[in-house]
Amino acid sequence: MLNVLAITSPIFLLIALGYGAVQAGIMEKGGTRPLGAFVLTFALPALIFKSLAQRPVAEIANWGYLAAYGGGSLIAYFLLFGLARWQGKTLTAAAIHALGGSISNSAFIGYPLVTLALGPVAVVAMTLNMVIENVVMLPLALILAESGTNGGGKLRDVLYGTALRLIKNPLIAAICAGAAMSLGGLPLPGPLEKALALLAAAAAPVALFVIGGTLAGLPLRGMLGDAMQIASAKLFVHPAAVYACLQLVPPLAPELSKAIVIFAALPMAAIYPLLAQPYDRAEQGAAALAVATMASFVTISTLLALL
């Protein structure tokens, strides 16, 4: 257990540092947003591009991993979606409710955690996860959410906006560019490789600090029921569904098999409240994020001890 705590404790200590910095007034809550933008726009794309460009294509195009993670994510989504509808939530509310139980914080928590636990395989797993989350799960949830609002025109706007967002997403661009470099067998020039390495090194610590700052001051009062339901689905149902789907695909490499379950067991993505905001579900999303992130210290430590 001490070995497990040696892995998880640094992660949550950096989250606590970000939380404390905002709570103490050392940094304004809004001050973490530029840091988050730096991670998503520069540091993580540099990490992904460098890693993929220096790996063989066969390691990147892992269809078994994509099928297991995608299948498990869809199962978790529709189970929570069905429960929300059964409880009387609108189609739009149910769509956003279920999203929180099926998209992981792959970048801000998953990458540094799995790197400490399993090593370089974390970058490959994170990249594959992002393909599913950005190409499958987010468009699905947004389309369902919009289909519950009035007017088909708005739904058409969402389809167009989703496609445009995918094209402009720096992470997706880094995945495509890195895969192209790998496919072409092109080496990275020395100065570029060093610059990318410096950017990549900043991704994990800055991302964890941002998560802590994001959690500071998030509301819980009056929304604990829904928040706990979403958090429970994310921390337990999602990894269980991914593990079940993992049994149906050709065997993955041992480290990758562990990584896929750990990533699925993470709390939801830090942008979940922002995605929920246009549908008046931002406070519920923030409460779920707070509950899941705090509880994940125990659940992830337990999972690592079992793997």
What does this entry look like structurally?
The chain is mainly α. The protein has one domain: Na+/H+ antiporter like fold (Up-down Bundle). The protein has 14 helices and no strands. Helix 2 (32-53) packs antiparallel against helix 10 (190-215). The longest helix has 27 residues, at 121-147. The protein is globular. The model has no long low-confidence stretch (mean pLDDT 83).
Biggest pleated sheet: none
CATH architecture classification name: Up-down Bundle
Question: Count of DSSP E strands?
Answer: 0
Distance between the ends? 12 Å
What structural class do helix, strand and pairing data support? mainly alpha
- Rounded mean pLDDT is 83
Strand content of the residues, in percent? under 5%
Task: Report the helical percentage.
Answer: over 70%
Helix/strand order, N-terminal first: HHHHHHHHHHHHHH
Give unreliable regions as ranges.
none
Q: What number of structural domains do the residues give?
A: 1
SS element count, helices: 14
What CATH first level would be assigned? Mainly Alpha
Q: Radius of gyration, rounded?
A: 19 Å
Write the CATH fold name. Answer: Na+/H+ antiporter like fold
Which characteristics define this entry?
mainly alpha, Na+/H+ antiporter like fold, 14 helices
Task: Lay out the secondary structure.
Elements: H1 2-23, H2 32-53, H3 57-60, H4 63-86, H5 91-99, H6 106-118, H7 121-147, H8 152-168, H9 170-184, H10 190-215, H11 224-246, H12 254-264, H13 272-276, H14 282-306
